[in-house]
C-alpha cells in the first residue's frame, strides 16, 4: 500500500474529510458532535428581523442553514425555530453568501460547566 493510500485510509478512520490533491490535502473534522444531513424549513429571528431558511445540516451543537434571501447579512445572536426542533437560541458563527453556520447557545453554556443554565434553571 502506497503512502498516499495509507494516509487516506487513516484519515477516514479518524473522521477526516478527504479533499482532492496530494496525500496531505485532508482536513480533520474538529467538531465534537456528529452532523447529520437535514431537510427542515425554519425561521431565523434576529431582533425585529425574521428570515426564512432551510436547515441543511444539524447536530446537537449547531446547524448549517441556507437563507431564502441570498443577500441577507446576519450576525450576533438569533433564534432558530422549526416544528421539528422547537425554538433554539444560537450564535451566528460564520456566513458565506446565503449559507450560515450556527452554534446553539445552550450547548455553549453546558460546555462551560453550567448544565442548569442550559436547561433554563436558575443558577445556584
Structure description:
By secondary structure, the chain is of the alpha+beta class. The protein folds into 2 domains: 1-30, no CATH class; 36-111, predicted glycosyltransferase like domains (Thrombin, subunit H), CATH 2.40.10. It has 3 helices and 8 strands; from the N terminus they run αββββββββαα. It has helices at 3-13, 105-111, 115-118, and strands spanning 16-18, 26-28, 36-46, 49-58, 62-67, 76-82, 86-96, 99-104. The strands form 2 sheets. It has a 6-stranded antiparallel barrel. A two-stranded antiparallel sheet has the order 1-2. A hairpin with a 3-residue loop joins β4 and β5. The longest helix is centred in the N-terminal third of the chain and has 11 residues, at 3-13. Residues 22-28 and 116-124 have low confidence and may be disordered.
Can you describe this structure in just a few lines?
With 124 residues, the protein is of the alpha+beta class.
* Corresponding CATH architecture of the largest domain: Beta Barrel
Can you tell me the CATH topology of the largest domain?
Thrombin, subunit H
Shape: globular
What's the helix count? 3
Tell me what portion of residues adopts beta-strand conformation. Answer: over 45%
Task: Estimate the helix proportion, in percent.
Answer: 10-25%
Radius of gyration: 18 Å
Mean pLDDT: 77
SSE ordering: HEEEEEEEEHH
**Low-confidence residue ranges:** 22-28, 116-124
Task: Give descriptors for this structure.
alpha+beta, 124 residues, two-stranded antiparallel ribbon, Thrombin, subunit H, disordered C terminus, 2 domains, six-stranded antiparallel β-barrel, 3 helices
